[in-house]
């Protein structure tokens, strides 16, 4: 695997190193030794999948508070999506900044999302499926989110959202969620 550092500290875009012949190829999706050598999380407790039927389905921007704060590794296994992360770590020089990349079944890129980041995506094709490695169990009392179209963050989504759940549409903006709080201190 090739780990590409991103402008947001701790985040990575991971490129699979394919070994192939006329039959196809083999590549590691996860390797504890390689992740550890790059200083990344190596313990994952769940593997989740999501299928979005329509192009323009937006999911996010989700995160969990401690003690359920989680690392995620996201890969698109069918279709295409634009994956976005936002740094929410108190005191981080990139607090409130975002990064996005296209993940699709052909490029096989993966987004490594550190603890203390919000995560979301919009599908660029119908029938898009994503696979997630997650380092913490779901904590319903720790689940949070940010409004996907918060102008203070300014994510440049590549297309307009067609499908957004009421829950995702009604998350607070960055200023409301973090005004006077230290929600992600120590991450």
UniProtKB/TrEMBL annotation:
<dbReference type="GO" id="GO:0008830">
    <property type="term" value="F:dTDP-4-dehydrorhamnose 3,5-epimerase activity"/>
</dbReference>
<dbReference type="InterPro" id="IPR000888">
    <property type="entry name" value="RmlC-like"/>
</dbReference>
<protein>
    <recommendedName>
        <fullName>dTDP-4-dehydrorhamnose 3,5-epimerase</fullName>
        <ecNumber>5.1.3.13</ecNumber>
    </recommendedName>
</protein>
<dbReference type="InterPro" id="IPR011051">
    <property type="entry name" value="RmlC_Cupin_sf"/>
</dbReference>
<comment type="similarity">
    <text>Belongs to the dTDP-4-dehydrorhamnose 3,5-epimerase family.</text>
</comment>
<dbReference type="InterPro" id="IPR014710">
    <property type="entry name" value="RmlC-like_jellyroll"/>
</dbReference>
<comment type="subunit">
    <text>Homodimer.</text>
</comment>
<keyword id="KW-0413">Isomerase</keyword>
<dbReference type="Pfam" id="PF00908">
    <property type="entry name" value="dTDP_sugar_isom"/>
</dbReference>
<comment type="pathway">
    <text>Carbohydrate biosynthesis; dTDP-L-rhamnose biosynthesis.</text>
</comment>
<comment type="function">
    <text>Catalyzes the epimerization of the C3' and C5'positions of dTDP-6-deoxy-D-xylo-4-hexulose, forming dTDP-6-deoxy-L-lyxo-4-hexulose.</text>
</comment>
